[in-house]
Amino acid sequence: MRYQITGKQLDIGEALQTHVKQELGVVMEKYSQRPTDATVVFSKSAHEYVCEATVHLSSGFEAAAKAHATEIYAAFDACAEKMDKQLRRYKRRLKDHKRERTDPVDLLGASSYILATDSDSEESEPDTLQPIIVAEMQTKIPSLSVGEAVMQMELAGAPVLVFRNEKKDGVNVVYRRDDGNIGWIEPS
């Protein structure tokens, strides 16, 4: 497995990198047979350390976890525990997915934009309806079934997932509703 372990304005020592590789390797060995990529980012928020981990599974899915703690090692251990819990929860479905799907998930290229918000103009009317683009990035839209999309959204810890429906070949959206249920938008 390839690891990318970084710190945002933090010095990440060799001991922490070794700890991350060993512990995350143990977690991934339980649930994924083929090598994968892992990105672990440490940062500091006030008095707490934050650890964000994203693992790209060989099936094309992504699992993500985030944890906070006052110690950097404790933040990673909590993050690894969340990742373990997510993968354990979806282990059966991930294995069934591998049996059904012979090829990895197809990914469709797309552009993603970050738009500026006018915090000053909450009370006043905007001058124009044209948004200001702050950043532009490339992203990938996976081609999945609805069940796989819900599983991917849960694994990534995302509130929403845009995907291409394999059965209807159209762009669909699944999202977590305020009542805790999952919503699915399928254009007609």
Automatic annotation (TrEMBL):
Subcellular location: Cytoplasm
Keyword Glycoprotein in annotation: no
Gene3D superfamilies, sorted: Ribosome hibernation promotion factor-like, Sigma 54 modulation/S30EA ribosomal protein, C-terminal domain
BP-aspect Gene Ontology terms: negative regulation of translational elongation
Recorded GO MF terms: ribosomal small subunit binding
Any GO CC annotation of this UniProt entry: cytosolic small ribosomal subunit
Pfam families: Ribosom_S30AE_C (PF16321), Ribosomal_S30AE (PF02482)
Main localization of the protein described in the UniProt heading: cytoplasm
Every Sigma 54 modulation/S30EA ribosomal protein C-terminal domain range: 130-183
Superkingdom of the source species: Bacteria
Subunit record text: Associates exclusively with 100S ribosomes, which are dimers of 70S ribosomes.
Task of the protein: Required for dimerization of active 70S ribosomes into 100S ribosomes in stationary phase; 100S ribosomes are translationally inactive and sometimes present during exponential growth.
Annotated family: Belongs to the HPF/YfiA ribosome-associated protein family. Long HPF subfamily.
Name by which UniProt lists this protein: Ribosome hibernation promoting factor
Native species: Allosediminivita pacifica
Gene: hpf
